[in-house]
Write a structure and sequence with these properties.
This protein has helices at 16-27, 43-54, 67-81, 96-108, 123-131, 150-156, 179-192, 249-263, 268-277, 282-305, 331-342, 370-380; strands at residues 30-31, 91-94, 114-119, 135-140, 161-167, 195-199, 225-230, 243-246, 309-311, 318-322, 344-345, 347-348, 361-365. By secondary structure, it is an alpha/beta fold. It has two domains: 8-41 and 283-383, Aspartate Aminotransferase, domain 1 (Alpha-Beta Complex), CATH 3.90.1150; 43-277, Type I PLP-dependent aspartate aminotransferase-like (Major domain) (Aspartate Aminotransferase, domain 2, 3-Layer(aba) Sandwich).
């Protein structure tokens, strides 16, 4: 018996990230495609979760998260993001940043509402928007600077635009939005009454002395911003699926209503683990930045040596590289060529653009041990 698929998935495409991971496994290659991250998890995070399991914290928690974690998050927001929030009314712990993002879209927007994505965009943002029956709208930021222009932003706003996604530091480009650019967003959002959803999962992975700026800390953005943050990248626990949303009380309450319906609560003992991690000394976060900057430089130097042109990221742990000189017809063909020739998996740039701008790009992830990166760049030299 055949049943029709839901129309909600009619425009969804399988993730090129998952596809390239499978292809990498097929050839036994090095996966620089998927943002898995193989740095060690801090012992305090692991021990915090283990102790919670042993202590019997294995049942439901409040849907918004355990108080101990929410209070640790509130202190972290005050210390690192310049945000003063009520941990009882403005923080919702969810099933990863993807869970927080999905809950925010469902709670705060209606089918048919327009939501603006700046491209290159994170493909999961787009697919979640489509699944929510929202209308994705696009503003292309031009490589290599990916600078935001106020005239272009205003031109991208349509009558039904209700929201805008700001990913900083960005996946896949590594762009970090400056205070001047966030002031532009503040002006345009105020004039058009836009909801801002900021994805800040890579906030602690920044380079060359740059400081992450949370959009909600700029101008009047705080009252209209849902800040989406998490622990996966900071503590190398991508499989734990823990993230959170921060917003004004009325917005947070609506998000939590959906969060409860979709996810019930985040895993109880793991919440205790990340609460322990947030108490880490500031030196931990500086060590994290230093380690990733070293990895960035290994890969970017290797790409340049292999004849590719890296678009050196300001933050996050991905780098886009120009592969147009290979003379291949599109980015998927180029990514498969790189894999078959070198055994290195990357992601076609077309996964991050709606149009042709991504066809000359591929994305590499450098959240790997140094030895693996050094082996990868040795293999990539076969492309010269």
């Amino acid at each position: 018996m055949n049943f029709p698929y839901s129309r909600r998935i009619a425009n969804l495409q399988p993730s090129d990230i998952r596809l390239m991971t499978r292809e990498c496994e097929r050839v036994g290659g090095i996966n620089l495609g998927q943002g898995l991250g193989d740095l060690p998890t801090p012992p305090s995070v692991k021990e915090g979760a283990i102790q919670a399991i042993r202590a019997g914290y294995n049942t439901y928690t409040p849907s918004e998260g355990i108080p101990g974690l929410r209070y640790c998050v509130a202190e972290k927001l005050r210390r690192d993001n310049g945000l003063d929030v009520d941990p009882d009314k403005q923080i919702v712990i969810s099933s990863g940043t993807t869970g927080a993002f999905a809950s925010a879209l469902t709670a705060l927007l209606n089918p048919g509402d327009g939501i603006l994505l700046m491209e290159p965009y994170y493909a999961y943002h787009l697919n979640t928007i489509l699944l929510s029956e929202l209308e994705p709208q696009f503003l292309t930021l031009t490589a290599p600077e990916f600078a935001l222009d106020e005239v272009n932003l205003r031109a991208a706003i349509r009558p039904n635009t209700r929201a805008m996604v700001v990913c900083t530091p960005s996946n896949p480009s590594g762009k970090m939005f400056s205070r001047d650019e966030l002031n532009i967003i503040d002006r345009v959002a105020e004039e058009n009454n836009l909801l801002i959803i900021s994805d800040e999962i890579y906030e602690y992975i920044t380079y060359d002395g740059r400081k992450h700026i949370s959009p909600a800390s700029v101008g009047q953005l705080g009252r209209r911003t849902v800040s989406i943050m998490g622990f996966s990248k900071t503590f190398s626990i991508t499989g734990w699926r823990l993230g959170y949303a921060v917003a004004e009380p009325a917005l947070a309450s609506a998000i939590n209503l959906v969060n409860d319906l979709l996810y019930v609560c985040a895993p109880s003992p793991l919440q205790h683990g990340v609460a322990a991690g947030l108490k880490a000394a500031p030196e931990y976060f500086q060590t994290l930045r230093t380690a990733y900057q070293r990895k960035r430089d290994i890969l970017c130097d290797g790409l340049a040596d292999a004849g590719l042109t890296p678009l050196v990221p300001q933050g996050a742990y991905y780098v886009l590289a120009n592969i147009s000189h290979l003379g291949l017809p599109d980015a998927k063909t180029a990514a498969m060529h790189v894999l078959e020739r070198t055994g290195i998996a990357c992601i076609p740039g077309s996964a991050f653009y709606r149009g042709s701008e991504g066809e000359n790009l591929v994305r590499f992830c450098f959240a790997k041990e140094d030895a693996i990166l050094l082996e990868a760049v040795t293999r990539l030299r076969k492309l010269r």
